[in-house]
Amino acid sequence: MNSKLTSSQQKTICSQLGRFKLRLLYKASIHGFNGTGFHQQCDNHSPTVSVGFNASGYVFGGYTKQPFSQTGQYSPDDQAFLFTFNGEKLLKYPVSNQVYALKMSGNCGPYFGEDLVLAYGGRAQVHSAPGNYYNFNAAEMHGNDIQLTECEVYEVETISEFEKPWRTVIWENEKRVEMMESIRLYCPPSKSVTRVRVLLIGPVGAGKSSFFNSINSVFKGHVSNQAIAGCSTNSLTKQFRTYSIKDGKGGNPLPIILCDTMGLEESTGAGLDIDDITSILEGHLPDSYQFNPTAPLLSNASGYQTSPGLSDKIHCVAYVVDACKVSIMPAKLEQKLEAIRRKVNLMGIPQLVLLTKVDEACSLVSKDIRNIYKSSYIQEIMQEVGVRVGVPMSCVVPVKNYSKEFELDQNCDILLLTAIIQMFRSTDGYFDDITDRLSNVKTK
Question: Which of 112, 183, 256, 305 is deepest in the core (most CB within 10 A)?
Fold first, then answer.
């Protein structure tokens, strides 16, 4: 069953409850807008979140810790509440008389007191009578539209925590210092390349520019915002930019160049043009090239590099994906990523996924970033994004970018530095393949 409640809405509801996730039990369009289908799927499950959807676009419902049954009696619940969404914001209406919080009716769906009933009387309708045991405004709750287009019930499940992390990370400053030094001393296996070029690709707002800013911050010793980054529905990056990272203020450049692109957008003719990807991968695109979403770069364009060397080409592609949006990735956006992946595969370039905003996706991680590999939820997201993008889970690297902080955090640094080291390890194999191919050509 596919959930009609978005990942963002689920997260907003769960933020009212604690460290939980929602599992879909009942969907009226499948099981029926009636008491029979509802009770078969939902009885003896608790806690639950019940949600109604109408044609006017309202999303509303209620929470209870009590399991549903068919006794016909009221059931007390001091934690029950009704809710509705106003955009992304949740409006909450707590129970005013806990003794009558729920009624266990056999011929209806979720029955909150006498105030709100979903799938009322075996029909795709809402019974709404505010003021008995819950105080809410009917127009605010559901726009006075009592016809349901869908009704869902979710069981609230605790997000499990692994006893031991499933990836080993040393959260010590000595390790951070060691990783920074290994990055400084890294030398690409190919003699013609002094700095590895990594292309960052991802949807608008996923955190491509923020990733560069974060890596730059680690080596500068303070939070830096050199690249334009922020929240927008359209890409803030309008040019192809190649960013060098310097080892401290006025220091030597590190052996990596992060290449930032225009963000991918769902609609056709918006965001990064897929045909520009080949030009970028092959090293034809000049720095500061102004993207044109409606037309790819032509070979007669100003600055076009007609004969790029190995040092001009891309040596690793990193897909930057927001952990909060993996499960709701639009199909058209997924198709664009698939088209890009095919191009990259044909060129034999290694690929990674940088999973950003992991602290926003999981409250366990938000509490302590060191819980990243103890969170079963993050593990599930990493598995899902690996399948969606088409890379093994070993190539999925979670990170937390600096976006609102003033000061650096040792544990965030360690995750960010791990991502760079994984990029180096991937490019080592790429350069080895090139060397092997050249050796085979010479011996023939």
Answer: 112
pTM over 0.85: no
Reduced to 3 states (helix: H, G, I; strand: E, B; else coil), residue 254 is: strand
Instruction: Give the phi and the psi of residue 180 in degrees, each rounded to 5.
Output: -60, -40
Inter-residue contact 91 to 105 (CB < 8 Å): no
| Inter-residue contact 129 to 115 (CB < 8 Å) | yes
pLDDT above 70 (res 234): no
**Beta-carbon count within 10 A of 37 CB:** 19
Peptide bond into 47 cis (omega under 30): yes
Question: d(Cα 340, Cα 353) in Å, to the nearest integer?
Answer: 13
Query: Which letter does DSSP use for residue 291 in this model?
Result: P
**In the β-sheet with 111-112, what is the strand arrangement from edge to edge?**
111-112, 116-118, 126-128
DSSP annotation string for 196-214: EEEEEE-BTTSSHHHHHHH
List C-alpha distances in Å: 17 to 12, 63, 65, 173: 9, 10, 11, 35
Q: Which tokens sit at 178?
A: 């060691």
- Phi and psi angles of residue 382, each rounded to the nearest 5 degrees, phi first: -65, -40
Phi, psi of 399 (to 5 degrees): -140, 160
Rounded to the nearest angstrom, the gap between the alpha carbon of residue 45 and the centroid of all alpha carbons in its chain is 29
Query: What is the residue-wise DSSP string for 63-75?
Result: EESSPB--S-SEE
Whether 106 contacts 35, CB under 8 Å:
yes
Residue 402, C-beta contacts closer than 8 angstroms, at least 6 positions apart = 210, 213, 214, 217, 223, 408, 412
Instruction: Name the 3-class secondary structure at 86.
Output: strand
Q: What is the CB neighbour count within 10 angstroms for residue 217?
A: 24
Q: How far apart are CA 89 and CA 262, in angstroms?
A: 29
Instruction: Write the pLDDT tens digit of every residue in 135-176.
Output: 999 999 999 999 999 999 999 998 778 888 999 999 999 999
Q: What is the pLDDT of residues 254-290, one digit of tens each?
A: 999 999 887 787 666 555 667 778 888 998 887 776 7
Give bridge partners of residue 111 from the DSSP assignment. Answer: 117
What is residue 161's three-state secondary structure? Answer: strand
> Residue 165: exposed, middle, or buried by beta-carbon count in 10 A (0-12, 13-18, 19+)?
middle
Cβ-count burial 404-429 (b if 16+ within 10 Å, e if not):
eeeebeebbbbbbbbbbebbbebbbe
- Which tens digit of pLDDT belongs to each residue from 356-406? 999 988 888 998 999 999 998 899 899 999 999 999 999 999 999 998 888
228: helix, strand or coil: coil
